[in-house]
Amino acid sequence: MVSQRLFDALPPFPKDVSTADVPKFSLSRLFSGDSVYAHEVFETCRTTGFFLLEMGGEEIGDNMISEVDAMFDMSNNVFDLEIEEKTRYAQDASKGKFTGWKDIGIMKTDTGAPDRCEFYALAQDDIIGNMSSLPHPDAIESHRSTIECFLRHAHSILTQILSILDAGLGLQRGTLASLVSQERSSGTLVRMIRYPPQPLSNRRTSLLRHTDLGAITFLCSIVGGLQILTPGSDPTDEAAWRYIRPAPNCAIINIGDALVEWSGGILRSNMHRVTYAPGAQADSPRHSIAYLVRGNKSVSMKRLQSERIPSAAEDGEVEMDVSCEEWELNKNKALTAGADCARSRGGRDLVPAVKCS
Ligand SMILES: O=C(O)CCC(=O)C(=O)O
Ligand SMILES: [Fe+2]
Description:
Elements: H1 4-8, E1 24-26, H2 27-31, H3 35-47, E2 50-54, H4 59-79, H5 83-87, E3 100-102, E4 118-123, H6 124-128, H7 138-141, H8 144-169, H9 175-179, E5 189-195, E6 207-210, E7 216-221, E8 226-229, E9 241-243, E10 250-255, H10 257-262, E11 272-274, E12 286-293, H11 324-336
Parallel strand pairs: 1-2
Antiparallel strand pairs: 2-10, 3-4, 4-5, 5-12, 6-11, 7-10, 7-12, 8-9, 8-11
Helix pairs in contact: 3-8, 4-8
This protein binds 2-oxoglutaric acid and fe (ii) ion.
Family: Belongs to the iron/ascorbate-dependent oxidoreductase family.
Organism: Letharia columbiana
Keywords: Iron, Metal-binding, Oxidoreductase
């Protein structure tokens, strides 16, 4: 949900590229309490797992638009720092440190080739104050309050979406939000990403196909490149990968694996990847900002109990009681090694709210 002003500064996404079938919802209607609209949002989270959320006109939406613009500015400045400076804040996957800077090529794509993107990740706990602050370059330190506002506003928008999911899953209002509280420790991150333009003669996937391991993601970008796998398709079928067209004032929201687990497979986390941008955009660097909301560290990954969520026993499964913290560590290691055998998950039919005999 970058502003129109920043979109106007870059070449447009071409009109003739076929794009994914992803609906656009509006934040003001989401806040209106319209139950038919809420049901459409829920069904999208169950069947596609991705949607656009348009903001503007509401106080929180307008704040978000200017905060996201400021985050993009900051991200540009961070990635433009000298490599020696960025190296001081390097991530260290072998020590489970996924905050700070990740150079291009550290991760693998699905062919085993090095990735083509740089990350700088910030822990929500660091910014909100759930832990003692981690050191960052001045380009970040001087913007801590902007980052905190961005996190608080994005979180309250996502809380609204989670309450729609509570209703659809037959959970008490506030159940899902209580698993991803901002006031308790979690692996939640805001990840800034820069993808340099790729040479015409050698263009390919820059970020491995994956599903997000957390609960829900709030993603902002201007330049295209994000693709989702058409539900029901084989990931090796190139024709099944479709671009999402970024739009001004719109965030891309997607469901992650934790919500699939908690909902017993009702909600859907869909595979996605990043490749070169289409048309004239391919010559511009691509920036994105992903707010990756994860469960509180000690929360279990076991499914929640409700009339609508089939129990593991009903499915003939024995559930492992892993905490979000352990689950994330294992998934992160696999992802870094390119060994994440990701597949889209979830999307099963809902049982009726009241079971009839
Ligand atoms: O850069 C993007 O648009 C997508 C990033 C992404 O999928 C992620 O960080 O999980
Ligand atoms: Fe992702």
